[in-house]
Amino acid sequence: MDEQNQGQDSVELVEMLVSSSRNMAGWVKFLGVITLISGIISALSIVGIIVAWVPIWLGVLLYQAGNRAEQAHLQNNPRELLIMLEKFRMYFMIQGILLIVMLGLSLIMIFGFGLSLAPMLKSMNF
User: Fold this and answer.
1) What is the residue-wise DSSP string for 43-64?
2) Model pTM score
3) Where are the domains of the chain?
């Protein structure tokens, strides 16, 4: 009897996850399209073309995750949720790496600015 209750609980949990994924599919796809468009717009500049592939990639990942969420609901297939979560994992991993790189570059710029400011302050007798 206990195994039957656990099985029923598992089925209900999967149904709730599939339903929840359907509710978020539209927003995830919307954010994917907006991120993709921002990448395309940044590619229009000379400097932006170097880094434009990142938001384009992130936008595609979000859009794919939204599609998988929608498919999980339409096909009632929880395996689509796994693929959706894998897309999210990749998205968040890339965002984390970008954050670390940006923090590092910010620290280098602050340090470099401080070093360049020191001779000027010294000449002003500060």
Assistant:
1) TTSTTHHHHTHHHHHHHHHHHH
2) 0.79
3) 2-90
